[in-house]
# Entry
Amino acid sequence: MEEKTTHLTRTEQRLLEHLVRNEGRIVSHGELLEAMSSGKPTKNIGYLVQWISGLRKKIEIDPALPTVIITHRGVGYSFAGKEEARWFPEEGRP
# Structure
């Protein structure tokens, strides 16, 4: 089987890193937006939804039925674990 290389944007990488550091815990929308702010705070959850969608397309087996990044409606997201992902960065970069 040919191995597929997946490249994450800097935003996707930072989002994934934050979720992985908090594996198994629900991370609120606000906490994720703050972690992603890069000095320009935003409260627009629409951006977060777009970032999560793009990340899911790259790491989920079926982005329409996510098993890696779980949505907790009205609260936030959680990272279920890299064993569920079809792709995950090499060790050293979460």
The chain has one domain: 10-84.
